[in-house]
Amino acid sequence: MIRHRLLAGAVVALLTAVPGLPGTAAAGPPRGDGLRPCALRPLPLPTGVAHGRATAVDPTGRYVAGIGTRITDGVWEPALLLWQGSRVTAVDTALAEEVVGVNSAGVVIGNAYVTAVQRPWRYQGGRLTDLPVPGSVSGAWVTGINGRGDIVGYGAVEETESTIPLRWPADRPGTVATIGTPPDGAALAVLDDGTVVGSARASAGSSSYAGWVLHPDGQLDRLTVPGRSNAWVLAARDGWAAGVTADDPDGQQHPVRWELATGRATVVDPAVQPVQDVTAGGVVLGLRAVWHPDGVTPLPGAVDGFPGVQAQAIADTGTTVGWTTTDRLTPVRWTGC
């Protein structure tokens, strides 16, 4: 699952309307019509770590991953954080700039800026390693991982000012492959059956965008929204995808959910704008609220008078992770939302 921050210069053109990037319209406050007993609990920080953000959770809710900061003599140093229940492991590494995913085996993926180039990495079995990238790309990012360890992402091709979707297959360690999709695209999620979901230009030279689904048998389907000229996928899990739609790349955005089996699109409550994640049951996570078919549940801490909050990822169990902001960044977990 992705949250997913797309930083490559070529992808900025592809996803200019993605929430969190310039030009995005601000979302209104969440509606308070959810009736679930949603509770917020802080996640423990290791000794010596002053700040932390939980940015990924595996579908079972067993593993949570994120980023911590040590402050030594005024110097801020990053650390990769991995929680399993109440136990937390810290890995001091300069590569802990962005943690984007963790699977049910505890494999963590992320991105870092290394020697002036964006590079992806994987943390598995206590070892952190760089992922290979094609020689044709000027920088690469990972965006999603599935249960068996397949990883997807994209690379920036400076020569053509475009992007190409990439896959790092679990059964061929140390290799990377280009995914054949519509032109100028990015892979954003990989499902457990190998299905890859992403976004791309509607056609070569087009100014419109659409989501896409590449099935294991090679069939490619588009994800669009009737009456709207643009759609971007931001997350996918099992039979569902979620993202945003707009009449034009710089226009007003609306959160949307797709049923992958049929391609049917449903525009959902604006309280979950910007869209962060989606579960196997089709529940959509926003920055400060959770959307269910029967209503919206604001996340505790997201109302006036409380610390600022930012949700980042949600498990199929409903466990949601993110952080609160007061005088420090505190990693948190929401349950029952």
TrEMBL record:
Signal peptide positions (record): 1-27
Q: Does the keyword Signal apply?
A: yes
Q: Where on the tree of life does the source sit, at the highest rank?
A: Bacteria
Q: Which UniProt keywords apply?
A: Signal
Could you tell me which species this protein originates from? Answer: Micromonospora humida
What this protein is called in its record is HAF family extracellular repeat protein
